[in-house]
């Protein structure tokens, strides 16, 4: 099973996702968005499953700090340039992708 969790260590939802897989003894690879953002190819891949509009965290500190609520912008460009705008966690399993804490979907993957 090849699970990838993309998020930040300070995000509660990301920590809950990590705990979900740890409790089930499922190994995963964690990628911290503070250290490395998404590549254009990864974002394209994720966009095939999740609408780009659902990937930007409009409630997050970074969105408000940059006053993006008052601007017109290209979501994809902003997500690539500022990974802290991404709604987390993004959990990937093969071609499957979820955004946010989605234990019901992850349980289906495990079966």
Shape: globular
Query: Helical proportion?
Result: 25-40%
Output the strand order for the largest sheet: 2-1-3-4
Cα gyration radius (Å): 14 Å
Low-confidence stretches: none
Mean pLDDT, to the nearest integer, reads 96
Intertermini distance: 11 Å
List the secondary-structure elements in sequence, H or E: EHEHHHEEH
Q: What percentage of the residues does DSSP assign to strands (E)?
A: 15-25%
User: How many β strands by DSSP?
Assistant: 4
Number of helices: 5
Describe this structure in words.
A four-stranded mixed sheet has the order 2-1-3-4, covered by helices on one side. With 111 residues, the protein is of the alpha+beta class. 36% of the residues lie in helices and 16% in strands. The mean pLDDT is 96. A hairpin with a 2-residue loop joins strand 3 and strand 4. The N and C termini lie close together (11 Å).
């Amino acid at each position: 099973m090849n699970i990838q969790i993309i998020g930040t260590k300070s995000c509660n939802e990301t920590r809950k996702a990590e705990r979900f897989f740890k409790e089930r003894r499922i190994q995963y690879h964690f990628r911290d968005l503070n250290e490395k953002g998404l590549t254009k190819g990864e974002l394209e891949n994720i966009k095939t499953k999740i609408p780009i509009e659902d990937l930007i965290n409009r409630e997050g500190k970074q969105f408000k700090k940059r006053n993006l609520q008052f601007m017109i912008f290209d979501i994809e460009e902003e997500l690539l340039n500022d990974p802290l705008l991404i709604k987390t966690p993004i959990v990937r399993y093969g071609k499957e992708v979820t955004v946010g804490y989605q234990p019901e979907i992850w349980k289906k993957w495990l079966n």
